[in-house]
Amino acid sequence: MEEAIKKKVPFKIDIGAIFSFHRHRQVASSLVPVARELVFDIDLTDYDDVRNCCQGADICLKCWKFMAIACKIIDLALREDFGFQNLLWVFSGRRGIHCWVCDVSAKILSSQERSAVADYLQLISGSSNCAKKVNLPISDKLHPSIRRASNIIRNKFFEVCIEGQNLLEKPESLKKLLSLIWDEKLKNRISKKINSLTDIKEKWNAIVQELTDTSVSLFYFDHYFLNINLQYF
User: Is 113 found in the same domain as 51?
Assistant: First the structure.
């Protein structure tokens, strides 16, 4: 292979599966893949519903922060929950990032097992017309992976979403954010309070204060934040 690469000097190399026989020595029908890397693709267009700075193929430093946080969440899940260690993160060359899981145990996973890993990492569901795409169970006993992801997001939510995407400044973005709060009285109270404020930090603090008010249980505060955090990431 080394000699072939030197001879042809390719500008691009696509890595595929490992087959049971050399593909040049067997007819295509007899080739059976025996191993291939487990690859995850994160695309910025998946964030078009929540990013206001860019759309489509356009990217900037503000929306790239979504990718950085997604990488951290997936990297931890693959390492801590599945035990994978050999992870290669690469820029896709367009508007996303690929994660190549190169552990032997990952390479020999069946298609069904690969789908199971992907489903484990997937919380978003619903079409672009669906306002609420993360539906967590009404319970304080959430899976540790969900709790871990939310903690990562919570530390960056104000910087990335509130400031970076102006969620509280644009009417449509604010409406979408408030739609994640199902308690109408609480929603109206928050809306009234932030409409009387001008500073973005004060608005966000007002939302946090309402959700942590003594009249609202700690469970609901935590659950609302889980829904809001995970919805935007």
Answer: yes
| Strand ranges (E), 12-151 | 18-19, 33-35, 38-43, 87-91, 96-101
Hey, how many other C-beta atoms are within 10 angstroms of the C-beta on 5? 10
164 and 75 in a common domain: no
Please, which residues bridge with residue 13 across strands?
A: none
Q: What is the pTM of this model?
A: 0.79
Half-sphere exposure of 58 (CA within 13 A, CB side): 7
Domain edge (last residue) among 122, 150, 174: 122
Whether 146 and 185 map to the same domain: the answer is yes
| Domain count across the chain | 2
CA-based nearest residue to 150, from 58, 223, 49, 55: 223
Q: Profile the chain (233 residues) by mean pLDDT over runs of 10 residues.
A: 84 75 62 84 86 88 90 95 96 87 94 93 63 55 82 87 87 83 86 91 89 55 50 57
Among residues 75, 95, 122, which one ends one of the domains?
122
